[in-house]
Specification:
about 400 residues, alpha/beta, about 30% helix, flat
Length: about 400
């Protein structure tokens, strides 16, 4: 979205048209809707801008729920925006730390500011991209204690705040650009500035990508990896009163069954390696990123099948929110014909193929299998010691 599209969008006519658009499901509906709107006398540019927003709002429902129906977006901004349920976790940290006024530096479209304001906190939101700042101001207009400023986060006056949250832009400048900047000194603001700002107030937090180099984690920060279901969405660094006592590493999983967290004072020591047992567990990516696999293995009474592969094995079935569990019914060689016969013997015709520690493309390997059964199964391609093995398995949740 450029400045002219923004000007078009922020008019009473466009906002009214966006509000009144009927739902549409497919391309045929869109063509019919465009034709009707043009016939009603709406300019082509206005129609295109409004329909783009309608599509973005529909996509945004996955992150913002019903709030999306009253928000405005850019495509890049929506991709980078914090999911509202994750933003609520951030806001909760500041509320529990006793903060009253929080600076949201690099506020984007305003997801974190929205969560902070919803808890009654005063918010100073700063965004360097002019279009994004204007949309954030619209999205946050219902909250009188939120101010949105178009400006540079490094120039923000932090003397009046007791909390700071930063989401450094890890992409090249511009709301339509998706090229990532890999050097932390090239982020905007840089990680060095972000850490200093987070340390300068009572409570500080920084949102980073889940794959951020662990060597960049400061010694005085709590690093928390958050997953929504199986999707690891971020690593957060927390300082001061936003950091919890005696916790340096944590993995938080938000799922339909609730919120589940694994915490530790440091990276967990690795679990020993042992023989493949009856059950195999695949830790959630947040647990893997947080280096808490060893703690999880000990909780499950298990061990690793290989020192370099994130699979835990145990003789006990222990369903856990921190890992997917599988019962191993048979172990075979990594050979399509052998695996096909094993699957047939277990009446498995609908299979999920997983792999770790072995150079195989699951999609290509599937084409080599003969699948004739009527039940669900899982094929795990991995290593056990020096052997390449295929595990014919079923999910623990499916056990009767």
């Amino acid at each position: 979205m450029d400045a002219s599209e923004l000007t078009t969008l922020l008019t009473p006519e466009a906002l009214r048209l966006l509000r009144d658009l009927p739902p549409y499901e497919n391309e045929t509906d869109v063509l019919a809707l465009v034709s009707r709107l043009r016939k009603d006398g709406h300019a082509p540019g206005l129609v295109a801008t409004v329909l783009t927003q309608a599509r973005l709002r529909k996509r945004a429902g996955a992150k913002f729920g019903p709030f999306a129906n009253d928000m405005l977006f850019t495509q890049a901004g929506l991709e980078q925006a914090t999911r509202l349920e994750v933003a609520a976790q951030h806001a909760g940290r500041f509320a529990r730390a006793g903060c009253r006024h929080v600076a949201d530096l690099g506020c984007g479209l305003g997801a974190d500011s929205l969560a902070l304001a919803s808890l009654g906190l005063k918010v100073m939101a700063v965004e360097r991209d002019e279009v994004t700042a204007a949309l954030a101001a619209f999205n946050l207009s219902a909250f009188p204690d939120v101010t949105v400023t178009h400006g540079d986060a490094t120039e923000a006056d932090l003397t009046c705040v007791d909390g700071v949250f930063l989401d450094p832009a890890r992409r090249t400048p511009g709301h339509n650009n998706t090229k990532r900047q890999m050097n932390a000194d090239d982020w905007s603001p840089s990680l060095t500035f972000a850490v200093e700002a987070a340390r300068s107030v009572s409570a500080g937090g920084i949102k980073l990508g889940p794959g951020t180099d662990r060597e960049l984690i400061p010694d005085d920060a709590e690093a928390q990896w958050i997953a929504v279901g199986d999707d690891v969405v971020e690593m957060g660094l927390w300082f001061g009163s936003a950091k919890r006592e005696d916790i340096a590493r944590s993995a938080l999983i938000l799922s339909s069954s609730g919120h589940h967290e694994l915490v530790a004072p440091a990276d967990a020591p690795d679990a020993p390696v042992g023989e493949l047992a009856r059950f195999v567990y695949e830790p959630n990516g947040a647990v893997i990123r947080a280096h808490l696999i060893g703690d999880l293995a000990r909780r499950l009474g298990g061990h690793m099948i290989d020192a370099s592969i994130a699979y835990i094995t145990s003789e006990t079935a222990s369903p856990t929110p921190f890992a997917r569990g599988y019962e191993v019914l048979e172990t075979t060689t990594v050979d399509a014909k052998t695996i096909s016969r094993a699957l047939a013997s277990h009446d498995m015709g609908r299979v999920e193929i997983k792999k770790r520690g072995i150079d195989i493309d699951p999609a290509e390997f599937r084409k080599k299998l003969t699948l004739t059964g009527s039940s669900d199964g899982v094929v795990i391609l991995t290593r056990a010691g020096t052997r390449r093995v295929a595990l014919i398995a079923r999910r623990i949740e499916n056990l009767s």
